[in-house]
Amino acid sequence: MTMQTAIFAGGCFWCMVEPFETLPGIDKVRSGYTGGTVENPSYEQMAAHITGHTEAVKIWFDDDIISYDELVTLYWQLADPTDAMGQFADRGETYRPVIFVKDEAQRQVAESSKQALAASGRFDKPIVTTIEDAKPFYDAEEEHQQFYKKNPLREMMMMMPRKKYQKQYWSDKERN
Amino acid sequence: MSRKKIIISVIGLIIIIIAGYAAMMWFSDDRTYNRELNKARNAVAVQDWQTAKQHYQASRKVRVSIENRTASEQLDYLARADKAIKQQNWESAKSLYQRAIDTNGGIPLLKKAAKTNQRIVNAEQDSGKYKASVSSLEKSLDKKDKDLNDLKKQMSDTNASVQAVQDSANKAVADANAAADKANATADSANKQAQDAQKNNKQDEHKDDQKDDNKDK
């Protein structure tokens, strides 16, 4: 068993936990903030767009069971790669889509997956998700962790635009 | 120690005790206020309007501030918007979110939540309108199909009716022809009888003339 980590920013982190956490081989998923200039930012600072962080999830996974490539493939189905200015109803750079890679191996996987997605013709707009070096990841406040379990109704509402995106672009996949 | 000094000391002590108690109470209230405010803000961050409202109200009992007053107003709108969404009353939800956004001195996090939710409602409403439009078009097409079938059926009925009228007319003409033939035959027969009678008369006259001639001879 080799435990690895991956960091994805795909808009509101409330909606990014369950799809990963429920997969086999996932140890845990934490919601947090990364890519900014302030240490230990709070949600209020984040929401005020003054720290440069994006909302993201950090995933601990066993790469004997699930590969980084599979996680990236799932990530494309969760976050709209053609929208650089936010994700769905959440707007602003706090919600921009980013794959934060921790090493060269992850970068190669992410880059080739991005190229394959662009070449697939699935989207009629350019793929604008950025691939950036991982930066310090700060856990969000505890009330934001595993939000889908704590406030399922709210999470369901926030998921509505994402479900539409999945239906529009990924109806050939079996994710719900 | 003089009696005067003792009285002054006692009064001073009482003042110190009262001031200490007041300071302690103020400090305690301040701590309660801040604790409730923090809990309210945490609830706002996760869009738990009910919990947020409870804590804002608790903080308001200690001290009324712009934050706990405007937040209560915004939270009312947001909670009502949630109810409207459950009933799929999109217009009402949008309007309530707008009121939360427009609240004077409103809490930024609540405004942000209202804006985000308003965008979701807009998207849902657009999607609903699209579905309704497609459904309306489908219904319209179904109705056109039905109308077309009805028209075809009517035309078929009319054709059958025209055929029946035509058949009836043909029969009447045939009957009339038959009657005419019969009448002609009757007339022919009458003519023949008349001719025969005339012929007989002529023969009888001829015979009478011969008889008269014979008598004269």
UniProtKB/TrEMBL annotation, chain A:
Residues 5-153 form the Peptide methionine sulphoxide reductase MsrA domain. Keywords: Oxidoreductase. GO terms for molecular function: peptide-methionine (S)-S-oxide reductase activity. Its EC number is 1.8.4.11. It catalyses: L-methionyl-[protein] + [thioredoxin]-disulfide + H2O = L-methionyl-(S)-S-oxide-[protein] + [thioredoxin]-dithiol; [thioredoxin]-disulfide + L-methionine + H2O = L-methionine (S)-S-oxide + [thioredoxin]-dithiol. The active site is at C12. InterPro entries: Met_Sox_Rdtase_MsrA_dom (IPR002569), Met_Sox_Rdtase_MsrA_sf (IPR036509). It is an enzyme of class 1 (oxidoreductase). SUPFAM superfamilies: Peptide methionine sulfoxide reductase. Has an important function as a repair enzyme for proteins that have been inactivated by oxidation. Catalyzes the reversible oxidation-reduction of methionine sulfoxide in proteins to methionine. Belongs to the MsrA Met sulfoxide reductase family. This is Peptide methionine sulfoxide reductase MsrA. It comes from Weissella sagaensis. The gene is msrA.
TrEMBL record, chain B:
The keyword Cytoplasm does not apply. It comes from the Bacteria. InterPro entries: TPR-like_helical_dom_sf. Signal peptide: none annotated. Residues 167-198 have a biased composition (Low complexity). The chain crosses the membrane at residues 6-27. SUPFAM superfamilies: TPR-like (SSF48452). Residues 156-166 have a biased composition (Polar residues). This is Uncharacterized protein.
